[in-house]
Amino acid sequence: MHDKNKAVVLLSGGLDSGTTAQIASSGELEIYAMSFSYGQRHTVELEAASKIADFCKAREHRIIDIDLGRLGGSALTDSSIDVPKDRSEGEMASGVPSTYVPVRNLVFLSYALAWAEVLGAFDIFIGVNSLDYSGYPDCRPEFIESFEKTANLASAASAEGGGRFKINAPLMQKTKAEIILEGKRLGFDYSLTHSCYDPDENGLACGKCDSCKLRLKGFREAGLKDPIKYQ
Amino acid sequence: MHDKNKAVVLLSGGLDSGTTAQIASSGELEIYAMSFSYGQRHTVELEAASKIADFCKAREHRIIDIDLGRLGGSALTDSSIDVPKDRSEGEMASGVPSTYVPVRNLVFLSYALAWAEVLGAFDIFIGVNSLDYSGYPDCRPEFIESFEKTANLASAASAEGGGRFKINAPLMQKTKAEIILEGKRLGFDYSLTHSCYDPDENGLACGKCDSCKLRLKGFREAGLKDPIKYQ
Questions:
Q1: Cα–Cα distance between A182 and A174 in angstroms, integer?
Q2: Domain map of chain B by residue range?
Q3: pTM of the model
Q4: In what order do the strands lie in the sheet with B60-65?
Q5: What is the nearest CA distance from B193 to chain A, expressed in angstroms?
Q6: Secondary structure letter of residue B130 according to DSSP
Q7: CATH fold group of domain B6-194
Q8: So what's the ipTM on this one?
Q9: What's the topology of domain A6-222?
Q10: In this complex, do A155 and B149 lie within 8 Å of one another by their Cβ atoms?
């Protein structure tokens, strides 16, 4: 019943998840892309996700509406909280930033697992990264390992002995520059991606939020020019 | 920042989650009830949940719309699959039934954790039960224990040392009769609850699905009359 050639890929539209989709689709796997609409300030992210899903020849791209934003608590979903700008690397590394959406990756992975079970897929890909992770607790390897154990206990497919779910996080130990070089090696087009937490009305990136700064530093260290436009 | 007197209670409107809400609210905790609308065939469940939230003096009751039903794969959300009727206890105990919604409790607990983090709560209550569990893998104690570990790795509150999340499953080792007797002891009103997988157009329970049969057996063994009406 379960087909080992299918994989669910979590796709935000950013540089990391785009590279992850490229990695997943470069092997023998048929990919199913999953994105979430959760009261983000920007929908330009979801447009980027759709372009990447096409580019990586995803068999299907599902955009799931979730109410996570309504629970409040993050600058990314609550317009009364400002997105932090021009933080130093020291500031980024210290503590959890206000752009944290409560346990976002846990919710996303749970949906991915539900879809994987219905599809008969055992592989799930997520573009989390523990080096350039900007202080989010649910990007750490110990979280991903623990989720994989929980997933295999939660699921009927696994309970019936059909196989084991694997949570693939191929970027976990890579620097941003290494991620970009790997994506380029596999032929990925970074002009499709969007990283900014606070784009202007035309969708142009600010160049100043944590996400833009990490991205620009990555391209600089990779010796490449970032193909997207900034304000 | 986190307040140990708040608790998030997952409330489906059934006998088990109703008893769980009664248990949670009988102590020192202020309860926040959370229910899900996920393409169930019946909304009578959600009406029951609202009545129970009122009865248990929940500070707030959130009903979250989720797209889980759209992923397909269950008789509870897909009208092309029949709800199984009149199964023997042997049939119920063997394997995963078609009423299984893919990794439902994992998705529900993930949302509960997101809300708990925003509220500053560290206690989450869920009415899962490993004895009368009707074959669902995500009702087993090893799943709940594994989720609790994952939750504490996923969350900013826990990462910052604010405390540890606890997943309370007070019914885990109880028979249905013991659950009912405990609820009655605490003054719970079972006429508010709804258990049937396949009610008629008036919301009356069928008395024949797995859930009705387990409920009726529980009342019988507790020596009590079930206060709800059947078709």
A1: 10
A2: 6-194
A3: 0.86
A4: B60-65, B30-37, B6-10, B123-125, B166-168
A5: 26
A6: S
A7: Rossmann fold (3.40.50)
A8: 0.84
A9: Rossmann fold (3.40.50)
A10: no
